[in-house]
Design goal:
Layout (H helix, E strand, L loop, with lengths): L1 H19 L8 E4 L5 E7 L2 E8 L27 E9 L4 E9 L4 E10 L3 E8 L2 E9 L1
Antiparallel strand pairs: 1-2, 1-8, 2-3, 3-4, 4-5, 5-6, 6-7, 7-8
Length: 140
């Protein structure tokens, strides 16, 4: 009886852990970022990228990339702009790594990785030099 219970418990734990394992395309979808922008993450070959799909809750009346370090791009529209590039899913880590995130509110590009996905949010880590910050994107 005890062996049967142990086997059942082990089988249940293995099944639950396999269901929780993140898959590469789990990242696909629309998200609201902490700065109020809404983005859509798509698959682009073997990588994932994201573009701005809404500025409704972003800085009031800001629709152009006014803080872009390239002066020639400061009149570019933010809506439709790709701000996430090169995210690659690591099968061994079950994370999306090596991405880049352009932040138009400061005009800088940072390193990006997505460390956790749930049905309602993605946990992202942005870093530049030795500084890093963790933030949640809400799935919409």
């Amino acid at each position: 009886m005890m062996k049967k219970m142990k086997f059942t418990l082990l089988l249940t734990l293995l099944t639950a852990s396999s269901l929780l394992a993140q898959k590469a395309d789990d990242i696909l979808g629309k998200y609201k970022l902490p700065n109020g922008m809404e983005i859509e993450l798509i698959k682009d070959g073997n990588t994932y990228s994201g573009k701005i799909i809404s500025l409704d809750d972003y800085e009031k009346n800001v629709t152009k990339d006014i803080k872009n370090p390239d002066k020639a791009k400061r009149n570019d529209d933010l809506l439709g702009k790709t701000i996430i590039t090169d995210l690659v899913f690591s099968e061994s880590d079950k994370k999306w790594l090596n991405g880049k995130l352009y932040g138009p509110e400061k005009g800088i590009t940072i390193n990006l990785k997505i460390t956790k996905m749930t049905k309602t949010k993605a946990t992202a880590v942005g870093s530049k030099f030795l500084l890093w910050r963790t933030f949640d994107w809400v799935k919409i």
